[in-house]
Amino acid sequence: MRALTAAAVGLAAALALVLTVTAAGPPSGRTSPKPLLTTVPEHP
Length: 44
What we know:
Blueprint: H1 2-24
């Protein structure tokens, strides 16, 4: 019975966290239009 209670409390906490993050919405700001370099450019 303790395991079932612990699982229910953990599930409720996880659900509350998800709802909190969802309610907060996306972060403000914008992404950079410049692509990230994945390789080092060669110098002639």
